[in-house]
Amino acid sequence: MINKLVEKIQKTNAPIVVGLDPMLSYVPQHIQKAAFEEFGETPAGAAEAIFRFNKAIVDATCDLIPAVKPQIAMYEQFGVEGVKAFQRTVDYCHEKDLVVIGDVKRGDIGSTSSAYATGHLGSVQIGSKRFSTFSEDFATVNPYLGSDGIKPFVDVCKEEKKGIFILVKTSNPSSGEFQDRLIDGKPLYEHVGEKVAEWGSDCMGDSYSYVGAVVGATYPEQGKLLRQVMPKSFILVPGYGAQGGKGKDLVHFFNKDGLGAIINSSRGIIAAYKQDQYIDRGITAENFADASRMAVEDMIADIASALH
Amino acid sequence: MINKLVEKIQKTNAPIVVGLDPMLSYVPQHIQKAAFEEFGETPAGAAEAIFRFNKAIVDATCDLIPAVKPQIAMYEQFGVEGVKAFQRTVDYCHEKDLVVIGDVKRGDIGSTSSAYATGHLGSVQIGSKRFSTFSEDFATVNPYLGSDGIKPFVDVCKEEKKGIFILVKTSNPSSGEFQDRLIDGKPLYEHVGEKVAEWGSDCMGDSYSYVGAVVGATYPEQGKLLRQVMPKSFILVPGYGAQGGKGKDLVHFFNKDGLGAIINSSRGIIAAYKQDQYIDRGITAENFADASRMAVEDMIADIASALH
Predict the structure, then answer these.
(1) Residues B24 and B46: beta-carbon distance below 8 Å
(2) Pick from B131, B133, B76, B63: which is nearest to B103 by CA?
(3) Quick check: keyword Cytoplasm in the entry (chains A, B) (predicted)?
(4) Residue A105 known to be catalytic
(5) pLDDT tens track for A205-263
């Protein structure tokens, strides 16, 4: 799947991923209203509204982008119905041949991590049959529990040709509270980065490993260092746009081959229709998905100009 | 909810929690067969089988125990149908007045952590209405992202009188890879423990905080230290039984008031019917839930004898 991701990035010339993190407040009123009329002001109604919202954005952007990253928390808040909408979103994005990065930040130990890996990336044996359930292509994973938590994911990645992105240096203001603390003269995130390189070394695609890392756009210096620590790992970079990261901050997340990083934007794309710059270009809540397309085009141009 | 947990522990005289982590291989054949006949060898069939398995164990043990801890990974591996079985399990345990600790190990940043907290512990606004969805009483949370990841959970805990257990020192063999590394002369887990005490200090129940910690039974020395670092935090202790922890290892996880810790056993209770010691006492796969009751009684006795 890392090979497919690389190919799609090269084909679209867009090292970006659209974060499908639909807060209900992002969903235009007319979509909410229609869904509530059909399913009531219920979790099923909310789930239908966010799925319709996602679908319109995917339809408007899928030819421009290689990948999407649904954030499962935004679905889980609506319970089982929300999780169904997550599944529908994953399935719909696959219909559109997009690579799907499940932003699930799972991580546990042994058989429990195995179960997460099975559910999100692999397949499960039920009696005499085998089923893939959530079937994302990549999942994000938390490293706090050490190798025991990561290895079961790596095993499933090898079997299924899927991939993971391990949290190394996250984009939030307080990420340094633990991640920046010095251990033997190096910050914790660097130690985690070294383990990412090690875990990834025995499951390589053509040029990059199945095991990638998450490093926030808001920490460009750390990104530069980690790029060197994990030369064969793709870096998933959140924090662009709404969280403050800019194209010029991103240069050092990439390798000399122009690859090695994929930049996420969520709110900046899916809620672009609320921004003055797109309202000024004729966008209303009715044609919100057109604003998402414009925002994708602007993001691609911003990153391209920074890289060249 | 921390007050209810304390009351129930005192009433049952059992500082234990039954881990409802049903691997399909733990579910006796006759239950699998019946569920598959009705729903097919499908995720729905598997989900039905694990719910029936859980229900029998809950029915057989609920008068002896204060709490259960369903591990959501074991449900997520069956996709949406599995998540439905998780919800049914939570709801059924609430019918039996058990405290439900959702072992979900979630953790993200800002609005994303808020969404997880909303889904698992809180309630979500949908149009003019408000819904609680998964509605566990406690959730486990991963600290790697720092305060930004924890505070949204704490906020929901305050509003809803719910609680969290933050991963501090996990029970697995490789937990030391990052957690034991020394920072300013102290291991990372101790720094995390200090933050747990800090985060918990402004949301206190009668005698313990809404903010607890996870510390593995397999690390008794670390448990002893962390007990002192976080005097007002309940410690959820996995790793008893099948993972190797024994009653005598647990003494120092408790405070002098005999409270402050709750010991989890999963496989040792829910798959007790496979152990020779219970087979020798007349257990078969047909009366598997009786073995779970025996295992709960044995665990309570083991811990009581260690504490006195």
Answers:
(1) yes
(2) B76
(3) no
(4) yes
(5) 999 999 999 999 999 999 999 999 999 999 999 988 766 667 788 999 999 999 999 99
Give the pLDDT confidence of A177-190 residue by residue, as tens digits: 999 999 999 999 99
What are B177-201's pLDDT values in tens digits? 999 999 999 999 999 999 999 999 9
- Domain CATH number, residue A81: 3.20.20.70
Subunit contact A115:B42, Cβ cutoff 8 A:
no
Contact yes or no for A67/A17 (Cβ under 8 A): yes
In chain A, the number of structural domains is 1
Check A146 against B119: CB less than 8 A apart.
Answer: no
State the count of interchain CB pairs (< 8 A) between A and B.
226
Residues 89-108 of B with CB under 8 A from A: 105-108
pLDDT of residue A5: 97
Residue B87: its H or E element = helix B79-95
Backbone angles phi, psi at B148, to 5 degrees: -55, -30
Burial class, B206, CB count within 10 angstroms (exposed 0-12 / middle 13-18 / buried 19+) = exposed
**Which residue range forms the structural domain that includes residue B191?**
2-307
Query: Are A291 and A56 a contacting pair, CB within 8 Å?
Result: no
Task: Yes or no: say if B266 and B231 are a contact pair by the CB < 8 Å rule.
Answer: no
**A25 interfaces chain B, CB cutoff of 8 Å:** no
A238 in Cβ contact with A19 (< 8 Å): yes
CA A270/CA A290 separation, integer angstroms: 10
Give chain B's mean pLDDT: 96
